[in-house]
Write a structure and sequence with these properties.
Blueprint: H1 15-22, E1 29-30, H2 47-59, H3 72-83, H4 88-91, E2 95-100, H5 102-117, E3 123-127, H6 132-139, E4 144-148, H7 158-166, E5 173-177, H8 190-203, E6 206-211, H9 220-223, H10 225-233, E7 237-242, E8 255-260, H11 264-281, H12 288-297, H13 300-327, E9 347-349, H14 354-364, E10 366-367, E11 373-375, H15 384-395
Parallel strand pairs: 1-10, 3-4, 3-5, 5-6, 6-7
Antiparallel strand pairs: 2-8, 7-8, 9-11
The structure holds (2S)-2-hydroxybutanedioic acid.
């Protein structure tokens, strides 16, 4: 029965983990998968996570199931973090939050919900976007379409984006990245968010904002600007969130799906349907990561310490961005790569071609995604110059 099953190439991002591990070059540099790294190349467990885990170890009394929507201490705290403490929509009980297995699980849950209840609508994704976005929505049976995001010179092409969104059929779904756009690192300004909101309202579009990097761009509140603007201005939208990066909980699969409805009654209706979609998909979410986040966000002391750890991660990446640009100076390429300092979050869309990325890997053991996306957090004080020199070699 299995004789017709064909082998396929591994995932473009996750496949790099193994390829990197197998490389014996002592100078190898991993700029592939989006995980934070410190200057020694490690992805440590945050100190606040360790403290929360110690507390949980003492307190946890059961391993029984948590409900379809997960741990309410977690969902309530995370909703406040995303929409803000004084959100009118939150106070009006218009937001349903469901704990999910990571941001990917949130996206799949959103996709299943949309397919079941708003069938026939396409979803519009930025071109480029995280490669798993189209994969998830296509797997759920939703038609995927694209709007432009960067131009040929590798800069945000806001005019083209706006013009394309103005042509999206009424009622279609538009996926936006809240901050730290993956893969490009080019984010929308506050004014640009306002302009997109006007188009969303005029065209009657349903926004789905993917918020996987809160706190990695400019700050927890700053990064939430677009999300909060939309939540307070619209009747309906979806938000998917992740604690993989900001709490460093990657493998604990900790995320959420938030659905904003026009009133509490409709929110409760939607909520029951989201629970069904979760039940049919993975039943109930894993508990540990969400329990850790709940422990941190419900303690003022741990929250303050965690914000400090988050600020350190963000600061290191932003410093690396300017140091990386400076490392191109001896090669006469500082201006060409100046945009790296303007991008935000873990990723930089370098503008390198597939062939150049391949040469970096084959000749220098530098690993980045084939699209030219580099994880800036994978750089270190030691590797900056090596990587800049290697890039200078392949672009000349
Ligand atoms: C990435 O884009 O590298 C991360 O979000 C990890 C993943 O699952 O792809």
């Amino acid at each position: 029965m299995f004789e017709r099953i064909e082998r396929v190439p591994g995932d473009a991002i996750l496949g790099l983990i193994e390829a990197y591990q197998q490389d014996s070059n002592p100078n190898k540099v991993d700029l592939g998968v989006g995980v934070y790294r410190d200057d020694k190349g490690r992805t440590p467990v945050l100190a606040t996570v360790k403290k929360a885990e110690e507390q949980l170890y003492q307190q946890e009394a059961t391993k029984s199931y948590i409900g379809s929507h997960g741990d309410t201490r977690y969902t309530q705290a995370v909703t406040r973090m995303v929409v803000g403490e004084d959100s009118a929509a939150l106070n009006d009980q218009r937001i349903s939050t469901t704990q999910t297995p990571g941001g990917t699980g949130a996206l799949r849950l959103a996709a299943d919900f949309l397919k079941s209840h708003l069938s026939g609508r396409a979803i519009w994704l930025s071109d480029p976007t995280w490669p798993n976005h189209p994969a998830i929505f296509e797997a759920a049976g939703i038609e995927v379409k694209r709007y432009p995001y960067v131009n040929a010179d590798n800069r945000l092409d806001f005019d083209a984006m706006l013009a394309a969104l103005r042509e999206v059929p009424e009622g279609d779904i538009v996926l936006l990245h809240a901050c730290c756009h993956n893969p490009t690192g080019f984010d929308l300004s506050e004014d640009q968010w306002r302009e997109i909101l006007e188009v969303v309202k005029t065209r009657g579009l349903l926004p789905l904002i993917d918020f996987a990097y809160q706190g990695f761009g400019d700050g927890l509140d700053q990064d939430a600007f677009g999300v909060r603007l939309f939540v307070e201005a619209l009747d309906e939208m979806l938000i998917t969130t992740s604690c993989s990066k900001n709490f460093g909980l990657y493998r604990e699969r900790t995320g959420s799906l938030m659905v904003l409805a026009a009133n509490e009654e409709q929110m409760q209706n939607v909520r029951t349907q989201v629970a069904i979609a979760a039940r049919e998909n993975y039943s109930t979410p894993p508990s540990h990561g969400a329990a850790v986040v709940a422990e941190i966000l419900n303690s003022q002391t741990l929250t303050e310490q965690w914000k400090q750890e988050l600020a350190e991660m963000r600061g290191r990446i932003n410093d690396l961005r300017s140091d990386f640009v400076a490392a191109f100076r001896p090669h006469g390429l500082e201006e060409r790569f100046a945009f790296i300092a303007e991008q935000r979050g873990m990723f930089s869309y370098t503008g390198l071609t597939q062939a150049q990325v391949k040469r970096l890997r084959d000749e220098f053991s530098i690993y980045m995604v084939g699209s030219g996306r580099a994880n800036i957090a994978g750089l270190s004080g030691d590797s900056l110059e090596y990587v800049a020199r290697a890039i200078a070699t392949v672009v000349k």
